[in-house]
Automatic annotation (TrEMBL):
Gene3D superfamilies: Leucine-rich Repeat Variant
Name the record gives this protein: Uncharacterized protein
Amino acid sequence: AIFTHTIDDNDNAVEAGRMGVLLDIQAAMRAFSDSASLQVMACTAVRSVVSKNYLNTAQAYQLGLLANVQAAMRAHTGSMIVQEESCTVISAFTFGGINRADIVRLGLLANVRAAMRLDLKALELQGKACETICNMYLDVDTKVDAEMLGALADVRAAMRTHRDSVELQLVACE
């Protein structure tokens, strides 16, 4: 209901943030950390609430929701959809006024890279991970960290694996 209510509706997303739904989502993620399907839907809901809304992004950051996303990535390494949705949440945070260097410091870029290495042939995952890495590069302060982690090598591997995907090539070249 949260995702459906807030997707592409900033007014509803603002109201959802005011109502405290992020805290409820976080509680669900913690209570059902072993459920991949719950983690996917929770990530989708978080992304919907924080996308294009700096106040909600700041609230989610203060709650430590990125740590919950990271925990989901680590707990469900075999689930491509958990990895994909986690990448989209991290990407949403990079546009939400959160210092990208903080995201790198938390180790999330390393988690994105680990997700990429799970299955080079998973086009959706590679695309979302490349987009997240590209978003990290928008901040000069994180360029050195991203390069040190070898993120460009992972982007190159995705490009070589998916030579026939214009969407992936576009995101990777961005």
